[in-house]
Amino acid sequence: MQIYYPPLVEQACRYFYGSSDVSVEMKATIYKMLIEEKILDENGNPTEYALKKGLILRREEVPNLSFDEFLELYPVFKRFPASNFRKIGGFWEIKTEFAIRILDKVQAGNFNLEEEVELSNYFEDRLEEEDKCQYFKV
């Protein structure tokens, strides 16, 4: 049986161990510690305490950002040509083929932890708000 942990737990594993490929027991221990330290709530979301203390940064993409503002929010995308991006419904989206190439590069370890967090945030937002994903789904 596959157990899925919240993205912040996976990120904590990568931070502490250099990989999210650690035992289920270790992930459970980290998850419990993050809850006990009031960094995450029981659902894996950041607490107000963690956000106010700057322990977790919340990046929120708002509609109608310029491409430069989008790149400030997600600097990892500066390494890719602007032609891979298109503004749809006020948000910068990418084609599915490009997303797959990026995810393959993540699996190959081509990004550092901060870049992986940025990509995770970008893709997580798209998966949660499917109505914004017209270009992403192409």
How does the SSE layout of this entry go?
Elements: H1 7-17, H2 24-36, H3 48-52, H4 67-73, E1 85-88, E2 91-94, H5 96-107, H6 113-128
Antiparallel strand pairs: 1-2
Helix pairs in contact: 1-2
Condensed summary:
The protein is mainly alpha-helical and 138 residues long. The chain folds into two domains: 46 residues, no CATH class; 66 residues, no CATH class.
Helix- and strand-based class? mainly alpha
Low-confidence stretches: 131-138
According to DSSP, the number of beta strands is: 2
Q: Per DSSP, what share of the residues sits in E-state strands of 2 or more residues? A: 5-15%
Q: Radius of gyration from the CA trace?
A: 16 Å
List keywords for this structure.
138 residues; disordered C terminus; single chain; mainly alpha; 46% helix; 6% strand; two-stranded antiparallel sheet
